[in-house]
What we know:
Elements: H1 3-17, H2 21-31, H3 39-51, H4 55-68, H5 73-85, H6 89-102, H7 107-120, H8 123-136, H9 141-153, H10 157-170, H11 175-187, H12 191-198, E1 226-230, H13 235-241, H14 245-250, E2 254-258, H15 261-267, E3 275-277, E4 288-291, H16 295-299, H17 316-330, E5 339-344, H18 354-363, H19 371-374, E6 379-383, H20 392-396, E7 400-402, H21 410-417, E8 422-426, H22 429-437, E9 441-445, E10 466-470, H23 478-503
Parallel strand pairs: 1-2, 1-4, 2-3, 5-6, 5-8, 6-7, 8-9, 9-10
Amino acid sequence: MPNSFRLLAQDIIALADAGDVSAAFEKLNEGVQTLPEEPHSAFLAGCLYERLRDWQQARRFYLQSLHLDVNAPRIWHRLGIVCLEAGDLDGAERALKVAIQQKPSEAPYYVDLSLVQARKGAFDAALENAITGDSLCPDHVPAINNIAHALQCLGRSEESLPYYDRAIALAPENGVCRFGRAVSLLKIGNFEAGWREYEWRWRCCQTPRTDLSVPLWDGEDLTGRTILIHHEQGYGDTLQFIRFVPLLKALGATTVVQVPPPLVRLLERMDGIDRVISTLDPSLPLDLHCPLVGLPMRLGLTPDTAPECPYLSVPVEEQERVGGALRQSVVQTPRQPELIVGLVWNGDPRPHDFVATQVDRRRSVPLEKLAPLMDVEGIRFVSFQLGAAKNQVVETGLPVIDVTDGIVDFADTAARLYGVDLLISVDTSMVHLAGGLGLPVWMISRSDACWRWGETGSTTPWYPSMRIFRQPRSGDWETPAVEIAGMLRQFVALYRTNLAAEAA
């Protein structure tokens, strides 16, 4: 490789390290115009683009290098990594398998392949490759963590804990391992240890707030003090954990809750909350603050001791007016009453968060997979689906009526839920909304269920009105769809029996 390009690479790295990324890009883009046609130079260019997080350009130059020398496992490995970062899981898997084929003794190749396969939901394969990586390099923390993570996703959280413990013994400050251990503890119901370990989310996947000068509440006396409880994670998390805020009011606090605008109007109706805001006023007098999901640890609570449902509400007049209007709009034959069932089949893909996007792909079900439900007589299906996925109603031609027109926030949605007899939804904020209102909800859970639903069972102490239908394996939506269709037939029969009894 010409020394000139090596020197250029050093300059580019120095600029990037100094924070002048635009200048680094400019120098790199100029340099590649005269790049020699040989594999090492193309590989170095790919490495530089990868360092600057330009995944597409990195991929381009790695492929160019491989075109000049295809037998290069190191380059296949880097190609797999940039494909992973770019969201091309299939491309990443192919590249990493070639790297392993060419050099089967490299532990990192197996470890990174296991990560890709876990993101795809292929947890058995992910476990196998992580174990191979661990055997080749026994103290490699990422390999051990990947074994633990795969076991957790396979519903074997108890088995995952010794691996998390082993990884943490090697790297006590590793936030990823500590957070993974927290999830396993919560999934098996060890909430005391799980809540404590869950605080590692601030070192793993969440960023602490820097705009608050008041201390973090750590369980001290709240009498006469004003505490800010603030939203974190997604809408569903807020709807689930908002139930704990009135307990702070009972401890003598003035409670201020900060949440995104779509939640404000709904939560203003809750008892035990003095004020709900979406934007923090710096002049607001505060004594303490606490992230919402941190409340149960500080209060020493579990799902079994949490405040009961319903804790969310909609005024009766609004229930009757809005819910009644929805029902009236979809009922075709009043003389032969039909059950009204709401549907939500997709979550928020969050394209800005690659990991969240992959989780959403595993939890979301194509509407066409729910076609067996439409074969059940006596039901009118209505859609509460928002976002691009709502277009699937037209694309599939399934008999589902969209009732989302005019919805601007969760208060609107909550009122409309009183117009349905049952909500069927994948694991989204909608199940927390219905559960918090005490309304019937059937949730379709991905096989690697969220920690809050545990690993087995069809019920949850979080929401007594919820029934859980679980995927037996990742990607298998057919099994829960058939099970739900069978339960719906029973639901319709019971409904008609009750109507007949009332009429007699």
